[in-house]
Amino acid sequence: MTTTTTQPPAASRASSGTHFFGDTAVLTGRTVKHITRSLDTIITTCIMPIGFLLLFVYVLGGAINTGTDISYVNYLLPGILLITVASGISYTAFRLFLDMQGGIFERFQSMPIARSSVLWAHVLTSMIANVVSMVVVVGVALLMGFRTGASVLDWLAVAGILLLFTLALTWIAVIPGLTAKSVDGASAFSYPLIFLPFISSAFVPTASMPGPVAWFAEYQPVTPIVNTIRDLFTGQPVGSDIGVALAWMVGILVVAYVAAQVIYRKKIS
Length: 269
Fold this sequence. Notes:
Layout: H1 10-16, H2 20-36, H3 40-60, H4 72-102, H5 104-109, H6 115-143, H7 152-179, H8 183-188, H9 190-195, H10 211-219, H11 222-234, H12 241-268
């Protein structure tokens, strides 16, 4: 008696491999169109960090001693850029939640497309939207007096760090986007991430903080990222902070990516 094995359809095999990038590009175009039709999401994302920038530079900056010779807007900008990303990823969770509730994922699963391309489309859209928001914030900082002696390589290093930070936080955003029970729940996770830079070296040196707070500020992930970007902007030698920053971001990215993929498979199985 001959035993036969069932092979997956050719379209399914091709879709899961060869067509991943094409599927992701098409689905990314779909989600990007949603943003271009409602630019208020990017504007809203920029309002909070720009508000913090204006408040701390023009209202509180004169009372803050950073212990450095650089202007306060130069000192502040790295932390503000991280707040911009943390604010922007809440919309990733929001859009993903709406797609889950609207049954779009079920429709996609009935089509011969790579499963992971659906999530990657939302992630890449988040990257694009956050890059636009950060460019706007840097433009405002330039109008406020931000100046840098960073070389082209320094700027490329800053861009790489910010992109990696955005990618890591976006995969964190995917998790509540898939699991939240309400719209508010999908975006509320970002609030602790937005305020984490306040307990770091983003606004004041950690040495000026009380003991337990200073310890937390020194060893949480935002501080080495901020310090690295600040050194690059000022053209200073980058110390050990860059290794710690990369370790934090890669570790967060790996954990969040694996967790999101596991949750996604359970949701669509």
